[in-house]
Amino acid sequence: MKLFSEWILFFTVLFVFGSCNNVPTPEELAMAAKGKSAILINQPDPESLRLEKVAEQYEIYIKDKMEEYQLPGLAYAIVKDGQILSMNTFGYRKNGTADSINEHTVFRLASVSKGFASVLAGLLVDKGYIGWNDKIIDHLPKFKLSKPYNTNKMTIRHSLSQTSGLTKYGGASYIYQGLTYPSILKKMRNVRVESKPAQVFAYQNAMFSVISEVAKSATERTYEELMDSMIFMPLGMNDASLGYKAMMKTENKGMPHVRSKKKWKAGNIRKNWYNVAPAAGVNASISDMSVWLNAMLGHHPDVIPQEVLDQVFTRHIPINDDSDYYQTWFPGLAQASYGMGWRIFDYNNHKIIYHGGFVRGYRPEIGLCPKEDVGIVFLTNSSKNDLSSACVRAFFDMYFAPKISI
């Protein structure tokens, strides 16, 4: 009888370990015979299971919302600990065609481009070409604003942190006129100054983009050349580019769509806002943006040093009064600030680095939590829509949920 029981125990142990693709060692068999449990070598990691559940939950959320809003197409990527946790693409490059969006389909990044501009500036600081507190006029002697104090005091840091002192969206009419950036910058002397530098947050595209001319003066290379040589190429962002001409040369691109009579209608890519390249000129695929996310989380220090990230992610000025822009983050948003090219949120006791963008037919979003080493980027070839407004916050709500059933 004892022998029979031992054989039953032996085969039970084999079955249990075999179901986990493990072969029990003699020591483990001995432990099992004494009624002790052994630790399975390939036992699933609870955190990995949780992350898989989050990724599945988010995919279901995106599919449901895309169907609800009938969006033409989108792509998103989630990264965690330097790896891609999830990357998905849905829909079409242009409604009414069979051209599906894939991981290399290029979208306009609109104001998500600002993060690239601040990081490029940081790289130039790191290499000694410029300093964060350099005055604009020291690099561009012909630079002039309506008030001499601001002309003489405004720095690179002020322009990138949206604290130039100029009125909110000052100079936007010059952008819409399609002027070249040097012409726009010359006309900025006509824009109203409402405060001294560093005192007031006032979101800018025209003044933000002065870094392109400063960089050209300091390095004798164009902003496009610097972006290619210092960011796109070293990171392997093979689909990324800068400007209208580059976008038009790209065959695999998502065409812009706007809402018309309850339907999404495809249109042509417009030149508007490409003339302020640092503010809104980058084009990229979701494959590129997964690389960019990991770089922003510190996983490419050979290209982008941590010191650069620390600088651009430092809070420079509160922006709580700008709440209309991020109202979907309430009530969890306790504090909102602007760094350099990035918004910085205190969301449910977590520091979130974030930015959104909008140009006609495109609505990208990006967010990351450096402490958790996790981030998400969302791209779509449709104008303003409720999914874009909520997608980043929705991900972090799922990621930080107290309990997710596995």
Q: Reading side by side through the largest sheet, how are the strands ordered? A: 2-1-13-12-11-10-9-8
End-to-end Cα distance, whole Å, is: 41 Å
Structural class label: alpha+beta
Strand residue content: 15-25%
Question: What is the rounded Rg?
Answer: 25 Å
**Molecular shape:** globular
Q: Count the strands?
A: 13
CATH class of the largest domain: Alpha Beta
Mean pLDDT: 91
Q: Please bin the fraction of helical residues.
A: 25-40%
Query: Spans with pLDDT under 50 lasting ≥5 residues?
Result: 1-22
CATH homologous superfamily placement of the largest domain:
DD-peptidase/beta-lactamase superfamily
Number of contiguous helices: 16
Main sheet summary = 8 strands, antiparallel
What's the SSE pattern? HHHEEEHHHHHHHHEHEEHEHHEEEEEEH
CATH topology of the largest domain: Beta-lactamase
Compute the number of structural domains: 3
CATH architecture term of the largest domain: 3-Layer(aba) Sandwich
Write structural notes for this entry:
The protein has 406 residues and is an alpha+beta fold. The protein folds into 3 domains: 32 residues; 223 residues, Beta-lactamase, CATH 3.40.710.10; 94 residues, no CATH class. Strands 2-1-13-12-11-10-9-8 form an 8-stranded antiparallel β-sheet, sandwiched between helices. It has a 3-stranded antiparallel β-sheet with strand order 3-7-4. Helix 3 runs antiparallel to helix 16, helix 4 packs across helix 11 and helix 4 packs across helix 15. The longest helix has 24 residues. The chain is globular and about 80 Å long.
